[in-house]
Specification:
The protein contains 19 helices and 15 strands. The protein has about 675 residues and is α+β, with helices and mostly antiparallel strands. The protein folds into 3 domains: about 80 residues, Phosphorylase Kinase, domain 1 (2-Layer Sandwich), CATH 3.30.200; about 240 residues, Transferase(Phosphotransferase), domain 1 (Orthogonal Bundle), CATH 1.10.510.10; about 325 residues, no CATH class. Strands 1-2-3-4-6-5 form a 6-stranded antiparallel β-sheet, with helices on one face. Strand 5 and strand 6 form a beta hairpin. About 20% of the residues have low confidence.
């Protein structure tokens, strides 16, 4: 990337996220320090572009002393650059964690903590009140604009040095005490305009500070921000978040089991502060105080913060230096940039072994089987694919995909009735295999109300050639049952393959525009995720062939002929398996074992994408744009259904209940959508 953009020079890196890097910059004419948030275009999908566009649009209208200001926005062929107000004291999260180290090197922090000492890992209550007043001022400003931030957390609360004088603070319309640091809300990537009476059905933000109604995928309103304020205030007082868990499921469970009982440890704050936090951390939003009560609470209404009115020690304070530069370089904070998958749900090894599998250790991942009949399916030993460079390879001895498909292709089959559609063998065609599997299987899964009978009509694929058909007969009951089972597994497999294919396309080199290719480290991370998803796809397709093979072995003994549809779904599965295996081998070559280690899993990738698709569909539905909503809802349901597919190392009972709850919620939305469309017809 260039070391400068128009009117600004780009200096040292301040922090980094998955999709943006923030640099310390400087205006070339005035020398004023700025923060430059640079986003690589190639990393952004449609949703992330929307988030970035939303952030830019909102920030352009944000003129408030406690909101980080957008100074400029520039585009280059490779990057978006947001030139932001420079907050040299970093974010509140870093300050809370490093205040002891900072007090040893920066006199400003040392004098602050001497004046406001704390008996806990948190901050002195008067300092907390000061920050809460400033946060509340920004929150009130957002309310006036009908904006919900949706991602209030310590990492998005930035700090600036105090004003030079009380007069300066008054002229800047600052809240709180003039001699104390200034807090500002940042990062509006998830914000949206939400009238007070409106409800939303989207899921975004940081789980540790996220309102439980959002975690439960329920409708929510602006009160969700109040929960986040309560969680941040608690952390400032106590020194840790009110609820901590290893993943999303545990977090929601912990909140629900707390029954609104909030403890403050051995050194509790004042009764007013305890009441303030407890009024905000109500798991039922109806029990949570509203904004009127919030601004009338003594903690907010009483604007007085005890202080001496004397300036803190500003010696050695360089307004151009960033907070991390005052302590050891290895303590550089990692910038928290909104990511599409911030939930930690289901973050565990992805395993697809079976009772007939043999397991052996191998120092290198091998997906080099020339035939799917002896294919190697991967299951990770650890949370990260390359953690400790250990792999477990599972050899499916009885898949024999090509063998079964070839045998069926040679068999005579029962003629298809003229009213029966052909199951397309075109693996990538959305109007072929998956159109049938999703429409027919969805009718069984979701019921008649949710079944789209119009979409069940699929054009016959020109690539399919019918083998000899000597007789006409109706498929047996057992064959209809196995076909339904295979259709459902195919729908699950295809929904995962679509996600893998997106990642596959992202890492294809562009020979004509090599500058647009992703950096090796980014490419490796995406390739790792694609491989996990292809392995999950292969596991599902193997399951389909195992079940088909078992049924075929049992019924072929009686020389029973099969319907053309049974044969077609087997041929589709064979093609899908071969293509997924080939692509898994391709992306495997792009993974750097030494540099990889995303600590993710196929389950987490699938879960996050399913929720993202359903959230996008809900947003489109609310805005009246029904294009693609039905398909997105249905695909997200099948992705979640794929997580429930039994295997030896599958989801635990609690995870299954959470996934089932989301399936039920999304299915209800789909039914309502189809009923609404039916009434409009």
């Amino acid at each position: 990337m260039s070391s400068s953009i128009k009117s600004y020079s780009i200096g040292n890196e301040l922090g980094r996220g998955s999709f943006a890097t923030v640099y310390k910059g400087e205006h070339t004419s005035t020398g004023s320090p700025v923060a430059i948030k640079s986003v690589l275009r190639a990393k952004l999908n449609r949703k992330l572009l929307e988030n970035l566009g939303s952030e830019i649009s909102i920030l352009k209208q944000m003129k408030h002393p406690h909101v980080v200001e957008l100074l400029d926005f520039q585009e280059t062929p490779t990057h978006f650059h947001l030139v932001m107000e420079y907050c040299s004291l970093g974010d509140l999260s870093f300050f809370l964690k490093k205040k002891k180290e900072l007090s040893e090197t920066l006199p400003l922090v040392a004098s602050l903590l001497r004046r406001y000492p704390s008996n806990t890992r948190g901050l002195h209550e008067e300092l907390v009140r000061h920050f809460v007043h400033q946060l509340s001022a920004a929150l009130e400003f957002l309310r006036q604009k009908n904006l919900v931030h949706r991602d209030i957390k310590p990492q998005n609360l930035l700090l600036c040095p105090p004003s030079l004088s009380e007069k300066d603070a008054q002229e800047a319309n600052l809240y709180g005490r003039w001699e104390l640091p200034i807090l500002k809300i940042a990062d509006f990537g998830f914000a949206r305009i939400l009238p007070a009476s409106a409800l939303a059905e989207t899921l975004c933000g940081s789980p540790l500070y996220m309102a439980p109604e959002i975690l439960r995928y329920e409708k929510y309103n602006a009160k969700a921000d109040l929960w986040s304020v309560g969680a941040v205030t608690y952390e400032m007082v106590v020194g840790k978040p009110p609820f901590k868990a290893n993943n999303y499921v545990e977090l929601l469970k912990t909140i629900e089991q707390s029954n609104d009982v909030i403890g403050f440890g051995r050194e509790p704050p004042s009764e007013d502060m305890q009441d303030f936090v407890r009024c905000l951390l109500k798991k039922n939003p109806a029990d949570r105080i509203g904004f009127k009560e919030y601004f009338e609470h003594p903690i907010i209404a009483n604007k007085q913060v005890v202080g001496s009115g004397e300036e803190l020690d500003r010696s050695q304070l360089d307004p151009r230096m960033y907070i991390s530069e005052y302590i050891a370089a290895e303590d550089l904070p990692k910038l928290d940039v909104p990511e599409p998958r911030e939930l930690d749900m289901l973050n565990k090894p992805s395993s697809h072994s079976s009772s007939t599998a043999t397991v052996r250790k191998n120092p290198l991942l091998e997906l080099t089987s020339p035939s799917p009949g002896s294919s190697l399916l991967l299951t990770r030993k650890n949370e990260s694919l390359f953690l400790e460079s250990e792999y477990v390879v599972v050899e499916k001895r009885q898949v024999e995909v090509n063998t079964l498909a070839d045998e069926l292709a040679r068999e005579p089959e029962e003629r298809r009735p003229s009213s029966e559609r052909r199951f397309s063998l075109t693996y990538g065609a959305p109007t072929g295999a998956m159109a049938r599997a999703l429409s027919m299987a969805s009718a069984r899964l979701l019921g008649d109300k949710a079944a789209d009978k119009k979409s069940a009509r699929v054009p016959e694929s020109p690539r399919v050639k019918s083998p000899p058909v000597p007789v006409t007969a109706t498929p047996s009951v057992s064959e209809r049952e196995i076909v339904e089972t295979l259709e459902e597994i195919a729908a699950k497999a295809r929904s995962i393959a679509l996600l893998a294919d997106v990642k596959y396309s992202q890492i294809q080199d562009d020979a004509d525009n090599p500058d647009m290719n992703l950096p090796d480290s980014v490419c490796s991370a995406i390739a790792e995720e694609a491989m996990l998803l292809y392995v999950k796809t292969l596991s599902l397709l193997s399951l389909a062939m195992d079940q088909a093979g078992g049924w075929w072995a049992k019924n072929h003994k009686d020389n029973k002929m099969v319907s053309s549809h049974f044969n077609e779904i087997i041929q589709w599965t064979r093609n899908a398996f071969n293509e997924s295996l080939e692509r898994a081998e391709t992306v495997k070559k792009k993974v750097n074992p030494q540099g990889a280690g995303s600590h993710t899993s196929a389950e987490k990738l699938i879960f996050d994408r399913a929720l993202e698709m359903s959230r996008d569909a809900a947003m489109q539905e609310i805005s009246g744009d029904f294009t693609g909503c039905e398909s997105a809802y249905t695909t997200s349901i099948w992705m979640l259904e794929a997580l429930l597919e039994d295997d030896e190392d599958g989801l635990n009972d609690e995870d299954r209940r959470i996934v089932e709850r989301f399936i039920s919620s999304i299915t209800k939305r789909l039914v309502i959508l189809r009923e609404a469309q039916g009434s409009d017809a």
